[in-house]
Write a structure and sequence with these properties.
With 144 residues, the protein is mainly α. It is built from 4 helices and no strands. The longest helix is centred in the N-terminal third of the chain and has 44 residues. It is rod-shaped and about 90 Å long. The chain starts with 7 loop residues before the first helix and ends with a helix.
């Protein structure tokens, strides 16, 4: 049960000392973004390499064993699909690294995590004020 003799300042200072360190949260977010961006970049490179190898192996076989138009259409479809997939993964990786850079440097249109953290802090502060403010008011009214 809460100790009614503690002041509002003691409660706020104790609660603020037990909060998570913002640097630790930021490092976890940075590590996650680097992992996601690096994974997407590797996936982009592997897709590009796989597309080139598949075309190198499949094109001569299709040309030798099929009519000319069918392998040409299949080759074009494979080339377009491979390059689009590779480009899409590359753009996703660049976007992740761009977000990471803007998050770490604090540039851009304002960090969403900062706004969310500020809103959480305001809500917690208001809750504490209501909880202990009403308790103190009730104690004062009983004393009168």
């Amino acid at each position: 049960m809460a100790d009614p003799t503690r002041t509002h300042h003691e409660i706020i200072s104790r609660d603020s000392s037990t909060r998570d360190h913002p640097k630790a949260k930021q490092m976890v977010k940075v590590a996650t973004a680097v992992t996601a961006g690096g994974s997407l970049l590797v996936l982009s490179g592997l897709t590009l390499a796989g597309t080139v190898i598949a075309l190198t192996v499949a094109t001569p076989l299709l040309v030798i064993f099929s009519p000319v138009l069918v392998p040409a259409v299949i080759t074009v479809v494979l080339i377009i699909t491979g390059f689009l997939a590779s480009g899409g993964f590359g753009i996703a990786a660049i976007t992740a690294f761009s977000w990471l850079y803007r998050y770490v440097t604090g540039t851009g249109t304002g960090s969403g995590s900062e706004r969310l953290e500020n809103a959480r802090m305001k809500l917690g502060s208001r809750t504490q004020d209501m909880k202990y403010g009403q308790h103190n008011t009730g104690v004062q009214q009983q004393a009168s």
